[in-house]
């Protein structure tokens, strides 16, 4: 009896400390963001200052090059990319994948202390972007129907740092490509293969050529 109690206690402990994604179907995607422009920037009050756009989750970050604002607007038309793993949504409502947010920011780049070559970054405006909603086959199909390219045109409101009622507008195009799908515990391998087939039918380009490069420096 004591052995049974001990066994039950160990099972409860393992369940409580198991990773929250354990056994769930997962897939790795590459997301490409073509950053077009940001408007209605705060006054930087510095003729030598420039700005960049960053996309970050935890310690990993993807950034654009620097651009100089002109009349509160900066333009890029530049692509930044990252790879992340999405997990099957637990609630199984209308969501295909569990939420995964990235912080999109406009950073002011200004000279550092006198006598140094370091540059100082300070956040001007930011928002949270849930990339999971753009990774389903339905989302890819809808984007392809609208634009013909499979990318989604977005205009995002970024709240000014320290001024909650003021916003900058970030314009970008977002697209995603399936890199690899893996079935979790309790799922058949056909479940993972179905993700690949569903998405590949909707996307205009094969993803195999980009998969190797995406695996190297992707953000999780």
Kindly give the count of domains.
Answer: 1
Q: Record the strand order, biggest sheet.
A: 3-2-5-6-7-8-1-4
Can you tell me the residue ranges where pLDDT is under 50 for at least 5 consecutive residues? Answer: 13-18, 186-194, 204-216
Portion in helices: 10-25%
Radius of gyration: 21 Å
CATH structural fold name = Immunoglobulin-like
* CATH H-level superfamily title: C2 domain
* Class inferred from helices and paired strands: alpha+beta
- Topology as a string of helices (H) and strands (E): HEEEEEEHEEHH
| Arithmetic mean of pLDDT | 77
Proportion of residues in β-strands: 35-45%
Number of helical stretches of at least 4 residues: 4
Largest sheet: 8 strands, antiparallel
CATH class: Mainly Beta
Shape: elongated
How many E strands?
Answer: 8
CATH architecture: Sandwich
Describe this structure in words.
- This protein has 220 residues and is α+β, with helices and mostly antiparallel strands.
- It has one domain: Sandwich (Immunoglobulin-like).
- Helices cover 23% and strands 42% of the residues.
- The chain has four helices and eight strands, in the order αββββββαββαα.
- Strands 3-2-5-6-7-8-1-4 form an eight-stranded antiparallel sheet.
- α2 (137-147) runs parallel beside α3.
- The longest helix has 16 residues, at 2-17.
- The chain is elongated.
- Residues 184-220 are annotated as: Disordered.
- This is C2 NT-type domain-containing protein.
- Residues 208-220 have a biased composition (Low complexity).
- Pfam families: NT-C2.
- It comes from Diacronema lutheri (Unicellular marine alga).
